[in-house]
Structure to design on (808 residues):
């Protein structure tokens, strides 16, 4: 393989959410057991925004932005100043840390765009990057694409004896061994665990001590379930010099079709991210940026209802998987569930494809999130409640059918 | 400087179109001669979509796309299949070369996004890339960002003795010396010259012979002025194995606020581009993709009127610059003009800043397009006709004032 072929071999999207349509349906005939199980098709690879529609008023803000013409179409690469001003104020209130709209924030094409820019601004040939396992699948790919080296750090799922979050001993060892960047999500994708307050404080302090840049993906921080607490790393007493926090309205607010995210933090890194944005896609689509005006300004009670609806789905799905003996950590926030499969007599990829073919259920294999997770699947349970519960039943039925 | 600081030092955006707002206005007092010249402010750094509005119906297609919900929000990373099918058919008709919607096309966040993905799919550490001088300023930056080496090839502006386009002798020498990728625009940005038919055919044949990948940016190919002809490289008899053509509706059609572009060509490169898209920003914003339905389907006579309006502005601006003795090649297509300044007693960057301060005119310095072009400025003349002509007069007046 040439150098560039090797580079792209590490970027496979065959199992990426939403890309299953490009897979061929062949090669399973020898594996199939039993008949298809009927039911409403459910695509757990991403949220169903028809079941949980976009924030009220989002389309109207788009139209108002369009009516503004060139001023809204051609924004600064980092996003329209007025919109940054509003969002920075909202995020200052949400996180408890002051954010300077002029110098410490950039609007990006989705949080994916924010992650790309943040890692592009910190990782180059030879940079060692601590990546949590499991975590959002793009993190590992991004590090490799930019020429960096992934240093894996395990996630602790948390229980009565141990706080949830990155394993601090492994993390400090990684920092000690030359890691320059840490990227991690909290709430964690794919498990939904929230890194505990004490762990967040310790990560901040360690990063400050070792001079490590931290990129923290808080995409799902607003969908926090009853009784849970959330700690923002940027609001810690002791934070690293280079810190970027990422959020966006794609998930809880169902605005993914607008491709909007924001990154906020160290001005020098935001500057680099804007320079990179200039050659990547110039800016988040101008008219779409207007929809950020609805963010943190949803109608009274809307967010609480959305959280309650998701918590109810979560609880019902957990009951289905627990009844089937499939161990599943309880998500504290967000809409991901990460059940463990029984030992199967077929491989994980085959099981995932058979699930789609025999049960009309699409899930994402655990190996996208950690190369060790050959026995897990991820579900985005932001779905129609009833259809999701029935589909979970089909998953457990097929898991039993293909159990070793 | 650290490795990553060096990398970003090459990505300056201080003079990038639309970013002038971030420049400080200080430090000129010692240079200023004379009084400000009053007039309607004109920002020639990009087109004025209020003077030349978006394609009729574009906003309505967005709303219809939004109403489709999840199917339009979560498209394949390469774009919604139905939209690719329509656009591929339209581009097949426009270019005269068959394009397979399923395997040979990707919808991108603007043509900037297409360029980023195309160069990302072909350039890595050590790749030698032929870059035309002058050409779109991001080309050089992209090559450097991906670790490649820029091999400059001069643009021939064209006259009765020589065809316009890349210098074929220099190009073949570059190919002979190990260049693996060629990126160029036709119509050329910033000059508006269209690479002649014979030159296009020769570039295709040379690239095929030397195994060079070609990325051809045809963003402005639809705005072709009276009497001019256009040759599509992908329709040549002999084309290289790796060829990507880029177009989009951001300019002629004023849809820049939607951030839409398309790249079409070799399936293997389109595959790589989609893999990269997956970690860059997932997809062009879903609802926005719907606006591609208006592309090549404008109302009867709309495109012809738009071209006539721009040709009239072009001719008036050429008259202003010619009368002032500022040599300016006649654009054959697109809306860029690249006048040559007289010898000044101040630097080009200072002149550009003083133009904005003293004459309310924003232009882009020639050094963004070729490091040798210290005596040129680029104007995007897709502006209000009268305001543009008056602003051109202010440019010639200030050029005379600061002449050496």
């Amino acid at each position: 393989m040439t150098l560039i072929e090797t580079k792209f071999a590490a970027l496979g999207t065959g199992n990426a959410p939403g890309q299953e349509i490009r897979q061929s349906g062949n090669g399973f005939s020898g594996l199939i057991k039993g008949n298809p199980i009927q039911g409403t098709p459910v695509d757990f690879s991403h949220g169903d925004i028809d079941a949980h529609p976009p924030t009220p008023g989002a389309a109207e803000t788009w139209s108002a932005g369009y009516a503004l013409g060139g001023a809204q179409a051609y924004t600064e690469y980092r996003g329209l100043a007025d919109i940054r001003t509003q969002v920075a104020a909202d995020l200052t209130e949400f996180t408890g840390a002051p954010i300077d709209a002029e110098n410490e924030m950039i609007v990006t094409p989705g949080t994916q765009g924010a992650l790309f820019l943040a890692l592009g601004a910190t990782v180059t040939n030879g940079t060692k990057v601590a990546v949590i396992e499991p975590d959002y699948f793009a993190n590992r790919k991004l590090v490799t694409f930019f020429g960096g080296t992934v240093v894996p750090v395990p996630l602790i799922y948390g229980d009565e004896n141990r706080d949830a979050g990155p394993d601090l001993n492994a993390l400090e060892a990684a920092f000690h061994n030359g890691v320059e960047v840490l990227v991690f999500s909290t709430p964690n994708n794919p498990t939904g665990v929230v890194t505990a307050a004490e762990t967040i404080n310790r990560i901040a302090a360690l990063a400050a001590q070792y001079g490590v840049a931290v990129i923290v993906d808080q995409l799902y921080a607003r969908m926090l379930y009853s009784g849970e607490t959330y700690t923002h790393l940027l609001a810690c007493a002791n934070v690293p010099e280079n810190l970027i926090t990422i959020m966006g309205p794609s998930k809880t607010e169902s605005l993914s079709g607008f491709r909007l995210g924001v990154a906020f933090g160290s001005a020098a890194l935001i500057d680099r991210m804007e320079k990179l944005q200039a050659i990547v896609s110039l800016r988040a689509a101008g008219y779409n940026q207007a929809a950020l005006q609805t963010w943190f300004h949803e109608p009274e009670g809307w967010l609480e209802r959305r959280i309650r609806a998701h918590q109810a789905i979560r609880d019902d799905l957990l009951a289905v998987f627990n009844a089937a003996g499939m161990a599943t950590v309880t998500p504290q926030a967000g809409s991901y569930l990460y059940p463990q499969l029984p030992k199967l007599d077929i491989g994980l990829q085959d099981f995932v494809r058979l699930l789609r073919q025999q049960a009309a259920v699409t899930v994402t294999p655990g190996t996208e999130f950690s190369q060790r997770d050959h026995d897990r699947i991820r579900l985005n349970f932001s779905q129609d409640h009833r259809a999701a519960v029935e589909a979970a039943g089909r998953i457990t039925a097929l898991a039993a059918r293909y159990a070793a």
Summary: The longest helix of chain A spans residues 302-323. Chain A touches chain B through 66 residues (CB under 8 Å). The first strand of chain A starts at residue 42 and ends at 43.
